Amino acid sequence: MNQPQLILGTAMWGWTCPKEKCFELLDTFYQEGFREVDAATNYPLNGNTDQFRLSENILKEWIDTHGVRDLKDTHGVRDLKVMIKVGSLTNVRTPENNLTKSFLLMMLDEYRFLFGESLDTYMVHWDNRDNKAEIQESLEAMQIAAEQGLRIGLSGIKYPRVYQVLNQGFGFDFRIQIKHNLLQSAYAHYAPFHGQPRFITYGINAGGIKLDISEYHEQSSLKARGGNVEAEAPIVAKLRPIIAQANKRTDRPQITNFNHCGMTYAFHSPDISGILLGTSRTTQLQQSIALYRLLKQGMYLDFYEQLKDLA
């Protein structure tokens, strides 16, 4: 039975999560035995053009500080796995991008230089095209990345069917990132790729929803994204009786926050191979890791069934 892996997200790094906190998150994540980190050229997606590519630079600095780049060196971190999404040209939340073959190969060279042996997965990001000839050329670039030993992925693809048809000539075992939570899911949109544990969920907390509005703080991701932190999210009222029922069991920790709900739903959903954690505090990360280990034991399957009905 496939069990999703945990992946550390970086979308808020340099935005609501300052560098020193990012380093603490990476330290904790790595010390707990996890290795994969997700990044993208346009993170943080905060609209501040001065911070374009800041998140990946923080990640690179941690690797350079804590790890090694020379395989002859026997010290430091050597097994971090970086998943990078490329194509976006801006971090102002618009789909402006460049997915030409030449640009993707240029960025491949750059990320090879930046992350060295830590580069693991190369992803096409935010593609609204339906032009087969153009997408064919993008896949030709990805073929070169695959020949260099990288895994190939997709994120934010408007026309998955075009990729599915063209992939018959390449045979990529795509990793695919999708938004998937209790409020919305892109899983059905990628129907041509169903049937394999290839999907990596992000946004499991639906933008940062809290069960208790008093828990929102100045750097809460929901507030940073312009959400309403003064009123309770409508889904919370629907969750309360479900959580109360699940918490009647005394053989497991109580469900106390929305993150528990989002992680449980994502972990047991069909075809999920990874869960992106967008935590900004080490306490949140540690709680997520603790829950993840219980989920692997099947401790909250009954809760998932109720969440599935709600979703």
Q: Which helices and strands appear, and what pairs or packs with what?
A:
Blueprint: E1 5-8, H1 19-31, E2 36-40, H2 54-66, E3 81-86, H3 101-115, E4 119-127, H4 132-147, E5 151-157, H5 160-166, E6 175-179, E7 199-202, H6 221-224, H7 234-246, H8 258-268, E8 272-277, H9 282-295, H10 301-310
Parallel strand pairs: 1-8, 2-3, 3-4, 4-5, 5-6, 6-7, 7-8
Helix pairs in contact: 3-4, 7-10, 8-9, 8-10
Summed up:
This protein has 311 residues and is α/β, with parallel strands linked by helices. It has helices at 19-31, 54-66, 101-115, 132-147, 160-166, 221-224, 234-246, 258-268, 282-295, 301-310; strands at 5-8, 36-40, 81-86, 119-127, 151-157, 175-179, 199-202, 272-277.
